[in-house]
Amino acid sequence: MSLDDKIKNSTKDIAGKAKEGLGDVTGDEQLKTEGKVNQAAASAQDALSDAKDAAAEKAGKVADKAKGFINGLKK
């Protein structure tokens, strides 16, 4: 995950926590719920970015093995 993505997700999570806390203090259930939704969205985005990074890493390893196999056939 890029640093920019980490910053965006952290910002969204922190804003969500602030909304949830403010909603809790003021008794505003809608604001509290919006905060929880923002936090969940940030967590989901983190998980998606991590999965994307893992898939790219695996694809790179497969490509490297395929290149090695092809180069072995050429010899």
UniProtKB/TrEMBL annotation:
<feature type="region of interest" description="Disordered">
    <location>
        <begin position="1"/>
        <end position="30"/>
    </location>
</feature>
<dbReference type="Pfam" id="PF05532">
    <property type="entry name" value="CsbD"/>
</dbReference>
<dbReference type="InterPro" id="IPR008462">
    <property type="entry name" value="CsbD"/>
</dbReference>
<dbReference type="InterPro" id="IPR036629">
    <property type="entry name" value="YjbJ_sf"/>
</dbReference>
<feature type="compositionally biased region" description="Basic and acidic residues">
    <location>
        <begin position="1"/>
        <end position="22"/>
    </location>
</feature>
<protein>
    <submittedName>
        <fullName>CsbD family protein</fullName>
    </submittedName>
</protein>
<feature type="domain" description="CsbD-like">
    <location>
        <begin position="5"/>
        <end position="55"/>
    </location>
</feature>
<comment type="similarity">
    <text>Belongs to the UPF0337 (CsbD) family.</text>
</comment>
